[in-house]
Amino acid sequence: MYIYNDFDEGFVRDRIDQFRGQIDRRISGALTEDEFKPLRLMNGLYLQLHAYMLRVAVPYGTLNGRQMRQLAYIADRWDKGYGHFTTRQNIQYNWPKLSDVGDILEALADVEMHAIQTSGNCIRNVTADHFAGAALDEYEDPRPTAELLRQWSTDHAEFLYLPRKFKIAVSGAKHDRAVVRAHDIGLYLRRNDAGEAGYEVVIGGGLGRTPMVGKTVQEFLPKADLLPYLEAVLQVYNLNGRRDNKYKARIKILVQETGLDVLKARIDTQFVLSKAAFKGVPDSIQAPIDAAFEPPVFNNTRSTVLDDALESDPLLQSWVDTNLAEHKNPAYAMVTVSLKAVGATPGDATSDQMRALADIAEEFGHDELRVSHEQNIILPHIRRADIPAVHARLRDAGLATANIGLLSDIIACPGMDYCALATARSIPVAKDIALRFEELKLERDIGPLKIKISGCINACGHHHVGHIGILGLEKHGVESYQITLGGDGSENMVIGKRAGPGFSDKAILPAIERLLMAYLDIREDASETFLQCFKRLGEAPFKLALYPVEGSQNAA
Amino acid sequence: MARIFTPQIITSNHLIEGDSIYLTATGSWSRQAADAVLMENADIAALTLTAANLQTGLHVGAYLADATHFREAFRAVGPSNYFHGKQAG
Containing domain of residue B37, as a range? Predict the structure, then answer.
């Protein structure tokens, strides 16, 4: 993994000193809240319903054991003993005191972490495939690109006051696990016919109040042109983005209003200038990045330990079936640790669980951990022979839930339990669904299913790309939940369609139950997933299940 | 005809802890929603809010709120997923 050099270290420490001064001046009254707010947001500090919230950047979701252990320490020392992993591969603390934030940032800097640019109208934490460097279907590791972009975008003076926030994601695999087409800029690592490396560049994707599937603006951009090309995109957006209206300020609206061809022509014109001025990435920058992501030294010794254990351990078998994915080295597996224990808060981990994950990563996993956008933790390099031992350790830590890709592996934003922007709660809906289907024992029968829940239109819970999406709103002074169907966050990204009127907090669970019972009735056979069934039959039978009588009494 | 004014409270977030606080009848701030003074007159409510927002060193972003709204009910108690916040004392 990338190790800070003196410049990185100095920059982060200087920034903490600067922010400490700003906090002191806010507490003394020298700064008003209006003056302080943009400064705290630039440092990842929000004010929520019950307390401040500190959003810590996890660059492209990558952590080592030491960092995870420090996150646990921070949770214990300054928060309430847990952290919330987010859909942008970050971690949030829900209870910091303003007067403690300088010390928390110092503790983060001790393990080469920070909270810079996790808010504000700037380029946010760059996200990437959580299986980077390990997946069997990978063409090329996206992390060197993500790290280069992290360095380029951090404190980039020209792009700190963009019309609106700006999100970049990178994937280097056949299957898109980073929802690349839902980003302001999405990058797919590709090879051209001559075998040269480059990028398919996608712009104008996003969820939120105006969900859009990103459009390809470059089929193949040579690798060396990445920074000047992205600079050109950002410059065109910076000048032309709608600063007059917050709700129309994202680049997706600029793409929509201007038209892709016209915008592409502007970008190309700007690119001529930026490319001419670009001298290339110096070797002193590129070489340490390339070296940081060399694959670990794998132990290829064959072993029957896992096969032997599976014969006598059905719990292990069940977990292996759902939580393991194919590694590029056949002696290894990628382990997804579920942070979705049935009835628990999606994405939350206690400090003890974080420490257990750190220990396991160090002992068995080449000291690597990843945060996935689906709010789980990945151990990307676990030797298959070590799987039984890792499973036992996870079980001891309450982290062996066998549900990855199934119904209870739900994305849920913090919603109105914490978030000041939320219009309804998300967490109780997720918990209720998971508990109900645990009771019905239908999760395995239902099979692959992605339920995603957002507590407001900003869509942090990615509800538009859930096979079943749930959006919490306020209607007539109560919580109301809209269902969208058929969304897909994969390389074939589809925005789900709204099914109809919303449901009250009491009616949403029965509605989901009716929907899934209908699916079990109408699917061709057990191999047809919910999404396949929806694509085959369209929305009609599912709407009928949700609204059995016209103007149903269940609708709120 | 003047619009009917729904009685409201003045609430804000504490500067250091960030938790919800409520303006009381004596003009002080309380951490408990039950202590909030109910403003029944729109003009007085607006003036009181303006005055409250001048106390910038104490709290963050005071506003008039309908105490019966579910958002305010959650703020007054704490999150539903853990026994944290006000409900934990």
Answer: 9-81
What CATH code is assigned to A411-546?
A: 3.30.413.10
Q: Do B75 and A49 touch (CB under 8 A)?
A: yes
Q: Reduce the secondary structure of B21-74 to three states and give it as a string.
A: EEECCCCCEECCHHHCCCECCHHHHHHHHHHHCCCCCCEEEEEEECCCCHHHHH
The answer to whether A52 faces chain B, any CB pair under 8 Å, is yes
**Which residues are within 8 A (CB) of A381 and not within 5 positions of it... i.e. 6 or more apart?**
A134, A296, A298, A327, A332, A334, A365, A366, A368
Closest CA to A453 of A440, A436, A434, A437: A434
Kindly provide the ipTM of the predicted complex, given to two decimals.
0.95
What is the reported pLDDT for A549?
75
Nearest to B16 among A32, A98, A477 (CB): A98
B61 → chain A, closest CA residue: A33
Arithmetic mean of pLDDT, A372-400: 98
Q: What are A187's strand-pairing partners?
A: A170, A201
Answer yes or no: is pLDDT of A84 > 60: yes
Distance from the A211 Cα atom to the nearest Cα atom in chain B, whole angstroms = 26
pLDDT of residue B5: 73
Is the CATH number 3.90.480.20 carried by domain A6-109?
yes
